[in-house]
Structures are given as C-alpha cells and as structure tokens.
Input
Amino acid sequence: MKRFLTTGCAAATAIAMTASASVAARTLDPTKAEDALEISKRVQCGVADGVPAVYHWSGKVYSRVEGEPDRHLFNGEGMNIRQCVKITDPKRGTGYRQVSREVMFYLDPETNEVLRTWENPWTGETVKVMHIANDPVNSRPNYPYSEDGKPHQISTLRRQGKWLFMPFEVPLFYHNVLAGDYQDYVGNKYHAMEIFDFAMLADEMLDTKNPTAYPTVSWVRISDWMPWMKMRGRQGQMVFNAMGAKLKSYDELPKVIKDEIALNHPEYNKPPPGDDPRPNETTWTVFKKMVDKEREAAKNNK
Output
C-alpha cells in the first residue's frame, strides 16, 4: 500500500506539473520585442543558458573567373559550436550574448578526404591548405530594446504554412589585415557577401513548451580567394554553397569533422567561455599570424 501511495503521489505530481507547464506554455508573438528576441535566441542558442549548441553544414566550393567555366575546387564540411549567456541592462532589458568558435575543412572533391596540400590549377604550385579555424566568432549583445528604446525586430521573418523562414544577408567590406595602409586609395579591402537562410517549423519555434528549436540553414559566401591559395592578385572569386542544421549534440556531427577536430583542433569540441573578451578571428587574421610566426622563426634561424 505504501508503494502504491508513493507511486500515486508521483503520478499526481507529474500530472500536475504537466498541467502547469501546459498552462504556462504560450505562442510567441514576433511583433513583440521580448518574443522576437526569444525567437532569435532559439535560432542561435542551446536548450538553456550556457548549454552548447552545434550547427553543421556541408557543401561545395567553386571558383568564378572571368572568361572561363566555374570550377568545383573543394567539398566542405563545417561546424560552429556556441553557447549563449544571459545579460541584463537596466535600459535595454534582459538579453543574451553568444560566443562561438568554428571550423570548416576543405575536402578533395572526388575522394572527400581532408586536404593537406592542394595543387593550384592556375599557377601549378602546390600549396599547404589552411582550413577555416576561427576562434572566437562572438556576437554583439542582443537585447529586447536598443539604447534609444527601439524594439527588437526580425524584419525578414515570414511564415508560409507550417514553416518559418528567416533569411539575412551580410555584405562585408572592411580593412584587410593582409593589405597595406592605403586601401581607400588603391583597393585590396576585404570584400565578401555572406547569406544565411534559416527554415524552421513554426510550431516548434513558437510554442514555449519547447525550450529551443532546431532550424535548417543554408549558407552562401562569395569572397576573394583564400590567402593560402597564393593567387598573387589573380582576378576571380570563390563561391561557397552549403546546407545544414542545428544539431542536438556534438556527437551528431559527421565522423570526418569529429576526427579532424580530435586530431588537430581539440579545443573546438566546446564553445568559448561566456565572458570571452577576445577579438574575433577570420581566415585573414589567422593566416597573417601564421605567416608572421613563420617569418619570425625563419629570421631567428639565420
């Protein structure tokens, strides 16, 4: 009887908790600042404050050179691991800060093996491949309201049937750390466009009984040649096209990514600390540090 009563009490408690959760659950309204921010957070973050979230993407990389057909240069496998931490501002409300690090590995387009070297088809030179490994890639703090009281909005969010779509474009045009001090006069600025298209089930995203959502994402980047390719100013661009999704755990990543991280980038199996103060890295800043280090070592060995 005692066992029955205990079991019955546990069941009653579970039912009460479920009923309470059901009453507490609601549908997020994208037109409200706090709800719009919560939607943004569900797209980007894990199931709880400080819990890692992982995005994976897979795709192809092409060249585009005037006067010749596009070439399929590489396949690509990438991931970003991040966490969000809660932050509060007396004027702007309670928001979050996202911190992350990311890798993308260039694969042989026929064998799908991780490339260590690459024969440049334009120059005939064999070069060492430097995979994308940026640590950190952190975001600015996000709040329900701006300093002047403007509410947070997701201007591109739209619903189509059971789906929510959230596309956004990121035009990039800024100082190139590998170029000189006169870029406003002679060019060589970093010039690229990144496009992110998120798609998610509306019921999963908007129902607060779900602690987060798991969108799919497509990613396109149009950019200059990677510096490690040693193109020496040759005309042309690279086009990256990939698709993926937010995963429920790091373990869901493809084996090729997990193996390469374990071998050469072990710190990438977890996000940076929530209070990470470091400036963001890009392929260009990482490449510059690598070349400067190699030059300094060669100088010291003379």
About this structure: Residues 53 and 142 are 17 Å apart (CA to CA). The radius of gyration is 23 Å. The helical segments are 2-24, 33-44, 183-186, 202-206, 255-264, 283-300. The mean pLDDT is 93.
